[in-house]
Amino acid sequence: MRRRNVLLLPLAAALPRLAFAQRDEAGGDIRIGLTPVFLDDQVAFLNDWRAYLEARIRAPVRFIQRGSYREIVDLLRKGELDFAWVCGYPFVRHLRELRLLAVPLFRGKPLYRSYLIVPTPDVRTRSILDLRGRVFAYSDPDSNSGYLYPTYSLVKLNERPSAFFGRTFFTWAHRKVVDAVAAGLAQGGAVDGYVWETLQKLQPQLTVKTRVVDKSPEFGFPPFVARQSVAKPIFADLQRALLQMSGDAEGKALLQRLNLDGFAAGEDKLFDGIAAMVKVVDAASHVAPA
Questions:
Q1: pLDDT at residue 3 above 90?
Q2: Which CATH superfamily is domain 114-216 in?
Q3: Which of 36, 56, 283 is nearest to 178 (CA)?
Q4: Nearest 5 degrees, angle CA 245-CA 249-CA 254?
Q5: pLDDT at residue 39 in the model
Q6: Which pLDDT value is given to residue 41?
Q7: Domain 2-110+221-268 carries which CATH code?
Q8: Distance (Å, rounded) from C-alpha 126 to C-alpha 94?
Q9: Buried b (16+ CB within 10 A) or exposed e, 16-50
């Protein structure tokens, strides 16, 4: 009997490591993709967040940043990332290949809006229609708030988005949309309302140079997603770590730096509004101009 117990001890000790063996077979680090973070201390923040997650999932975490949502989603689809913080627009585009992991909570809800902004001295602009023929800044062609929603708005107004503005350009980050409008490089721009509100809190000297003209309806907040092939134990570990961030002091401090309240598991239907806009914009893009 004593010999049997001795033999069982190494096996029992190994059980907690079985999940890590699956991680090692998948390539070692848990790879999380991000587009540009809007915080000035982004390197320090990501180092702190990585350490926090590693301590809770007991596995190495690596943040991988790229300049656009498309690059991040391509890496996910190729299996070169395990998870990513993306926009609801590419999520609904690739719903069969991606799985919802968690949705951030902003002001208590898993929702946000698109803001239409102009330079503060512009007191005449009241809607997107007032920006006809002007210079307009989009954030990313795969952003809901920074591209899809304003495009949809113009389609619904029976306008041709490709011909409406005098010139358009992509900044590849919501923070840079605010920068461009504040500096007068664009006479209007579409920005993630959460980013604008957070910058107003952290850098009011920047946002005071812009004025919010209009706000969209609420949409599902840009989610954390996983590629469909991620092992279930890894998915469950990271999801649990995110959902529990609001429950301890260190997690709350990190959330405060992001101006978020926490994370929720969420449901795909949160993004139905975005999916509906995609159908309208896609249909309009296949209609030949008059």
A1: no
A2: Periplasmic binding protein-like II (3.40.190.10)
A3: 36
A4: 60
A5: 80
A6: 83
A7: 3.40.190.10
A8: 35
A9: eeebbeebeebeebbbbbbbbbbbeeeeeebeebb
